[in-house]
Design goal:
Layout: H1 13-28, H2 34-55, H3 60-80, H4 110-127, H5 144-157, E1 161-167, E2 184-191, E3 194-198, H6 226-230, H7 234-246, E4 248-250, H8 253-267, H9 270-276, H10 287-295, H11 300-304
Antiparallel strand pairs: 1-2, 2-3, 3-4
Length: 323
């Protein structure tokens, strides 16, 4: 632990909370120094896991103190770490004059069609925010359904074949790993016999506050967003770069698997890796399995168990497990 984080010698919930509260306040004072703030946040995640055996309880009254500490960390994630973890930015200028042409024979290529479709969706998304016209600074969290509807409407008017696909949490309509939320929508568009992933709200998964790997293993928190996992591999970086910048990528089997791998890894909490015995951030599902996850009767819950997915409900056996 960092020297600035005091490890209490006596088990007293209010004392733990007081120490944690003070550290959170010192974190806010670092908000203009990203590297120092990130190091502090990482230490706070580790510290919370370290003291969980002492402060976490299923007793309703004792649990209130732990819940208050979780709320402190969630608030800090949202208020301080709301910048992107990658330099990939949308290729978008709001002031460009644009009227979407619905005549397909007026376009020179599939990429020309997709560029215009994505631009129309992005401009509508930005317009819905009012005064802010810079897509780079807009948080598109929970805007995936709107984005996919806007894209689908225009694509259908152009006569394109399009599917709006819902990724259910852990690919299961029945699972409750996120208390009924946690869905993601994207489009699959077919042009000249090729399929393309179109996801105009993908940037929501690349915010620093939910992409620190030490977030794993904390009771009442879920895992990290796809961003941190996508940036771990060359293929993941390529796929995320194209989608973040252009809003789409060809849905080859390799690209589609990499895109879905990011969500598969997001659904896992710290218990999955502790029981695996190692922090191995890989999804071994094949593209055929993913098709069955999306359109068939299989899902991630059946393979990995609900306890290891979504919000973590029980503490790690080893609070010092290395993620």
């Amino acid at each position: 632990m960092a020297d600035s984080i005091y490890r209490p010698k006596f088990v007293h919930l209010e004392h733990y909370y007081g120490q944690f509260f003070d550290e959170i306040q010192s974190l806010y004072k670092m908000r203009n120094d990203r590297e120092a703030a990130l190091a502090k946040l990482t230490n706070l995640y580790r510290y919370l896991k370290e003291i969980t055996p002492d402060v976490y309880s299923e007793d309703a009254e004792e649990y209130k103190t732990y819940a208050a500490m979780i709320n402190l960390i969630l608030d800090a994630e949202e208020r301080i770490f709301n910048n992107q973890i990658t330099e990939y930015q949308p290729l978008f200028t709001y002031d460009r004059k644009h009227i979407l042409d619905y005549e397909l024979d007026h376009y020179s290529s599939p990429s020309h069609i997709l560029d215009e479709l994505v631009y129309a969706t992005r401009k509508k998304l930005v317009s819905s925010w009012g005064r802010i016209k810079d897509l780079k600074v807009l948080n598109l969290t929970n805007r995936c359904k709107l984005a996919s509807k806007l894209t689908a409407k225009n694509a259908q008017t152009m006569g394109l074949k399009i599917q709006t696909i819902v990724i259910h949490p852990a690919y299961s309509e029945k699972s409750y790993i996120y208390h009924g939320s946690g869905y993601h929508y994207f489009n699959l568009i077919t042009i000249e016999g090729k399929d393309y992933i179109v996801d105009c709200s993908y940037s929501q998964f690349f915010y620093l506050g939910r992409n620190n790997i030490e977030r794993l293993g904390i009771v009442d928190l879920s895992g990290c967003f796809p961003g941190v996992y996508m940036l771990m591999s060359e293929l993941g970086r390529k796929v995320s770069k194209e989608i973040l910048e252009k809003g789409y990528i060809e849905a080859t089997e390799e690209n589609l698997k990499a895109y879905l791998d990011g969500f598969t890894l997001m659904y896992r909490n710290g218990l999955y890796y502790e029981r695996l015995g190692e922090a191995r951030y890989v999804a071994d599902y094949t593209i055929d399995q993913y098709m069955n996850f999306l359109f068939g009767d299989d899902d991630q819950v059946q393979h990995e168990g609900e306890e290891c997915l979504g919000y973590q409900r029980t503490p790690l056996e080893n609070p010092h497990f290395k993620f």
